[in-house]
Amino acid sequence: MPFEDFLDEFEADWRLLGRSTKTAREYRRLVADLVSCAKIEPNLGIVKAWLAASPSKETARYRGRAVRAFGKWAETHDVPGWVWWRQVPLVATPATPQDTVTPERYRELVTRLKDPADRLVVELLWSTGLRLSELGRLNWEDLNLTDGFAVVRTSKTNKPRLVPLSDKAVRALRRLAGARIGQVVGSSPRSIQRMLHRNGAPTAHAFRRGWAVNALRGGVSQVSVQAAGGWASTAMVGRYVSAMSSELAISEFRQIAVQKSDKVDKEKSMSLSSELAELAELHKQGALNDAEFEAAKEKLLKLSDRQTQEGSFLPPTPPIHPRSFRFKSVVKNGYRDWRVFSARSSRKEFWFWVLYVVMISYALTLVRITCVAFDFVDQEDSDGVVGLLFLPTLVPSISMFVRRLHDTGHRAWWGLVPLVNWIFLCSETDLNEKRWARTTST
Q1: Whole-angstrom distance, CA of residue 20 vs CA of residue 24
Q2: Quick one: CA torsion of 130, 131, 136, 137, rounded to 10 degrees?
Q3: What SS3 state is found at 163?
């Protein structure tokens, strides 16, 4: 069987598999060129010499791919003498950055173009990812402006497909739909290429890469990009966007971070609102006066602003209470609220106050003994001096006593009942009690 017949069958099988017709023709031409240069049946040594004579590394790599493709086909079609095809080397070529259109570059170009027909070409290239030849063959009958897609009837893989149309592209097409029939652009691929060059625009391939990158960055799956772009495999999509892979990864992580940040901001806003509402409720019940309410509110808002500027969020906080249970604060609040009998005080606050009163009593007793020992005052006068010094603590102690009874759900007169009153004072807070304002927690 003549070798030319093998080449015809190889090209036919390649097309039947839905692969590029142009690639099939090029591979056939290169294999035929190899056979003609060898003048004898090709072997691995002849192929390596042929690859080494290539004018560039890119050409050598393409030649090697053509030989490998034909050798793989020949192995299953009884072509003699091609058992060495797996050993054909593929020359490594340095990765060069590929021109890729960005959204900013696209917007700048559309703004700069004045001719509506030129803007339409750019809109279609950006929104559809069409190849130059596919755009030149696109007809008005292939457009569905209602649903926003176009049908590509003839493509590189000889398979029809659907491509999306953006809203801007649909509007631009509607403005021209009444005046055009036949081809949409009305220009050959070479004319479109010259128009892009004349306006300083990127190539159609740069638009196609930008379309793929923008779609992937927007969350479109690689399979969908492959189907809409008309690639034979997802590997081709990866090859197109390989130069932008790091940027795509960073973009995806940034999207996740933004989503988490929005969620945290929402939770933080809800937490701040609930805490402000709790403050307002305490103020309404009389547990906080106007000055305390404003001070607590300002402190809460400042904390929220500071943590927002630091990029953090409000951590889980316990319920806001106007009082602090540190010993110094309990003493200060006890004197400040000396005439407040209608509120409540927790068990912890009460016993801190009792500890303070005991300390005061011991201190006054020590002062009395010292004064009597050094004859500063008489024994009879010392009792009056101690009582006078203790008087400022007496009324705050009574008010604290009453508030503690309120906190257990009992009225103040229970303080007159011996033993029972101390049982109540040691009891836990009655959380269901609503008659008195709840100012503290247990």
Answers
A1: 6
A2: -80
A3: strand
109 vs 63: CA distance, rounded Å = 38
Lookup: tokens for 306:
């500071």
Q: What is the pLDDT of residues 259-271, one digit of tens each?
A: 666 666 666 666 6
**Spatial distance between the Cα atoms of 146 and 128, rounded to a whole number of angstroms:** 16
For residue 361, the number of C-alpha atoms closer than 13 Å in the C-beta half-sphere is: 8
Q: Token pair of 174, please?
A: 């509607």
* pLDDT score recorded for residue 68: 92
* Reported pTM: 0.45
Distance CA 120, CA 118 (A): 5
For 103-240, CATH number out of 3.40.50.300, 2.60.40.10, 1.10.443.10, 1.10.10.10 equals: 1.10.443.10
Architecture of domain 3-87: Orthogonal Bundle (1.10)
Rg of the Cα trace of the chain? 44
Checking phi first, is residue 148 left (phi over 0); if not, alpha (psi -120 to 50) or beta? left
Q: What are phi and psi of 152, to 5 degrees?
A: -95, 105
Long-range contacts formed by 331-337: CB under 8 A, 24+ apart: 331/356, 334/396, 334/397, 334/400, 335/392, 335/396, 337/396, 337/399
Q: Which residues are paired to 152 by β-bridges? A: 161
Q: At what angle do helices 44-52 and 57-75 cross, to 10 degrees?
A: 160
In the numeric block, the tokens 């009163």 are attached to: 357
